[in-house]
Amino acid sequence: MRLTARLMKVFVTRRIPPEGQALLAQAGISNVEQWESDEPISREDLLKGVFGAQGILCLLSDKIDKKVLDTAGSNLKVISTLSVGVDHLALDEIKKRGIRVGYTPDVLTDATAELAVALLLTTSRRLPEGIEEVKNGGWTSWKPLWLCGHQLLNSTVGIIGLGRIVPLDQLAAQSDFVVVACALTPETKLMCNKNFFQKMKKTAVFVNISRGDVVNQEDLYQALANDQIAAAGLDVTTPEPLPTNHPLLSLKNCVILPHIGSATYGTRNIMSVLAVKNLLAGLKGEPMPNEFKL
Ligand code: GLV
Fold first, then answer.
1. Is the CB of 60 under 6 A from ligand 1?
2. What number does the ligand 1 atom closest to the CA of 236 have?
3. pLDDT, mean over the chain
């Protein structure tokens, strides 16, 4: 079946990186509607946009819930998300309706791993504090113990979401660095809580590159404020964006980034191409390069 063979509407919830955008333009879809902005679409415009669509290409900031699915209607065949995470999609409802889901795993692993290392070093070597001292005149002299941190060399890095499964308490107790890289599911929601932080070493650094909801942020705040753990680096928070007056932002030993794990030009372009290929395969009823199996 050629995509132009019959009237077909696709809704794209944001401007996407150029390579994906170009592929979409060449695909011959009769009606592509797109939210032509780098800023998120409002709920109202999302509902208007998806009406009658056969395909939706969305981002992790778009909540695709029952209301959106009902509004799209029974023609909807495929939802392609420009993300590896699928926690913004009402998967049960999507499955019930027989809609297929495409996502973008693997292609962002390297970029995200690089950011995890950047956060590990930034937090453990206290870079933001150092940068600030240079700017505010706090740098008066070289001092033997000033701005000392913890070293990566010979340390144990425990990664939640990779490799061998070990009990969480054990991972917390044995690691010098804990990196959260697992998917957000009902099982992992708020998994890093008071009990978890109490098990961690006082010298340990906590890094989250997964989803904010894996962490109980109030418990993390207490652990950092009371020096129960040394530092934290977060690329993800709840909510996103984090309000600028959030207590975590008042702590010197907490570094927060605005969810940029996969943000390299190359990776985002590859993700956009993959998302468009998943969308097109879903519309044609063909195997997708990366289908999220429901
Ligand atoms: C990033 O967080 C993603 O899910 O792609």
1. yes
2. 2
3. 96
How far apart CA 93 and CA 14 sit, in angstroms, is 23
CA 85 to ligand 1 centroid distance, Å: 5
Q: What is the largest CA-CA distance in the chain?
A: 73
CA distance 60 to 258: 13
Q: Judge whether 259 counts as a catalytic residue.
A: yes
pTM above 0.90, yes or no: yes
Does the pLDDT at position 3 exceed 70? no
Rounded alpha-carbon distances, angstroms, from residue 260 to 82, 87, 211, 242, 263: 14, 17, 12, 14, 5
Confidence of residue 165 (pLDDT cuts 50, 70, 90): confident
Strands 205-208 and 231-234: parallel
Neighbouring residues of 172: CB distance < 8 A, sequence distance ≥ 6: 158, 178, 196, 197, 199, 200
Beta bridge partners of 204: none
pLDDT value at residue 30: 87
Nearest atom in ligand 1 to 209's CA: 2
Q: What pLDDT, on a 0 to 100 scale, did the predictor assign at position 4?
A: 54
272 phi/psi in degrees, rounded to 5: -70, -40
What was the pLDDT predicted at 164?
A: 77
The pLDDT score that the predictor gives to residue 2 is: 55
